[in-house]
Design brief:
4-stranded antiparallel sheet, about 450 residues, Methylamine Dehydrogenase, Chain H, 6-stranded antiparallel sheet, globular, mainly beta
Length: about 450
């Protein structure tokens, strides 16, 4: 214990004005090397300031009990991470501004969802009333596009990887498609999914209807509840998930629904798609399920079910190469899954802990993992070399409500050798406020 405290006292974080610095070496990591298939190493990230730990022994004890009683962490062994400064990073962050969400004047705007377009250098935000577009270079508003009334809250937003389409999903079970003009650069509403033409051609046939509630049926191409997530795939497909427990597959070119899968036993809250087309869904039934087209098939099959969380899974994010999956849940943990060649497909390698309430959103950019929580904070994590664990580089505060959505992009002027990595991070809260942060990450000098 004394060795751990000595190591922690060697690390400090400083803050001045709106700018703050946190050292990656300031995270305490508790882990265990797996000795059986049912156990796995866990990473527990606490505050980077040793005095905070010393002044709150009771809180630390309660947190330890919480970790030890997590069903995914059957046993823990205290380990001191290797103090090799060549593998440590520090981060500084600055809150650039807050973007006020436009309102229709009929009441609150509700939560705001976010997306970046790296190719066009645009930031998209959407709430119940407006789809808003900003120039990422100077955060200048470009346009505010009204969303048709009656759709309810906007639940998620996604961009097509190879085209000008923007997809928003809504409480009323619809998906709206917006197109950016190649001439004016402005956006317009193209259609709502499923398209009227797609519905019309399926209406006459009884086989196209499914039972969604007692004595109630609807077309299988239509979501029967809020569409909670949407993600684009690599082969001209995009995927939507809903509280109606289904995963639907859509063609990006024809905008037709190609497939509907009864994916979970409870509401589906999140979806993520890897570059190879593998699809991950997270649900209130505590499960993460893996879907793929096997052996050239035209439909998706269940590949694996990942069962480690003890409560509703709210958020999923993938590393750039798709080999690492991050999942956030109401149990306050972010689990780290790595691809393996086995029937289970993915194996848990650790849990990132530190948030005091449910994890509501996740984002990955470069080597960073970003988490947003109901505790109103955003945490920046970074992996410290191969299988060395993760460090919490920064904890960003300022929101009045929980963090519902995250978007992050690495700035192009940070690619030069020896220069700090510079990121723009946007966080959207449940009250509709959007905060824009500038994050710099640098290796710690030895």
């Amino acid at each position: 214990m004394s060795l751990l405290l000595s190591w922690l006292n060697a690390v400090s974080s400083s803050a001045e004005g709106k700018s703050s610095v946190a050292s990656g070496g300031g995270a305490s990591i508790v882990g265990a090397t797996p000795e059986s298939p049912s156990s796995f190493s866990a990473l527990r990230i606490q505050s980077s300031t040793a005095s905070e730990i010393l002044s709150s022994n009771a809180s630390a004890s309660e947190d330890t009990v919480s970790v030890l009683t997590h069903p995914s962490l059957p046993s823990l062994q205290s380990l001191i991470p290797p103090l090799n400064p060549s593998h440590l990073f520090s981060a500084s962050f600055l809150r650039l501004c807050s973007l006020a969400a436009p309102s229709s004047g009929t009441g609150g705007t509700g939560s705001t969802v976010l997306a970046f377009s790296a190719s066009s250098h645009l930031l998209y935000t959407a709430n119940e009333s407006f789809l808003s577009v900003y120039d990422l270079s100077d955060l200048r508003p470009i346009e505010f596009i009204p969303i048709p009334p009656g759709t309810g809250a906007t639940k998620s937003i996604s961009l097509s990887p190879d085209g000008p389409a923007v997809f928003t999903t809504h409480q009323d079970g619809s998906i709206r498609v917006w197109r950016r003009s190649s001439r004016s650069g402005l956006h317009r509403l193209q259609t709502s999914l499923p398209t009227p033409a797609d519905q019309l051609r399926r209406l006459p046939l009884p086989k196209n209807y499914v039972t969604v509630r007692r004595h109630q049926k609807c077309l299988w191409i239509k979501h029967a509840d809020a569409v909670s997530g949407i993600a684009s795939g690599p082969i001209g497909l995009f995927y939507s998930v809903s509280w109606d427990k289904t995963l639907k597959v859509w063609s990006a070119s024809s905008l037709r629904c190609l497939e509907s899968i009864q994916a979970h036993e409870d509401a589906v809250n999140a979806v993520a798609v890897a570059a190879d087309g593998t699809v991950y869904t997270g649900s209130a039934d505590r499960m993460i399920r893996v879907w793929a087209r096997l052996d050239g098939a035209e439909t998706h099959d269940l590949v694996a079910t990942l069962d480690r969380h003890r409560s509703s899974v709210n958020a999923l994010a993938l590393s750039s190469d798709g080999s690492v999956l991050y999942s956030g849940a109401c149990d306050r943990s972010v689990l780290v899954w790595e691809r393996e060649k086995s029937p289970s497909y993915m194996a848990v390698t650790g849990a990132l802990r530190g948030h005091e309430r449910a994890i509501l959103c996740l984002a990955c950019v470069g080597e960073l993992v970003i988490s947003g929580s109901g505790d109103r904070t955003v945490r920046i994590w970074r992996r410290e070399g191969f299988r060395m664990g993760y460090s919490c580089l920064a904890v960003m505060e300022g929101h009045a409500r929980g963090i519902k959505s995250l978007a992050a992009v690495r700035m192009p002027n940070s690619d030069e050798a020896g220069e700090p990595e510079v990121y723009t991070v946007c966080s959207g809260s449940l009250d509709g406020e959007v905060m824009v942060w500038r994050v710099r990450v640098s290796p710690v000098s030895s």
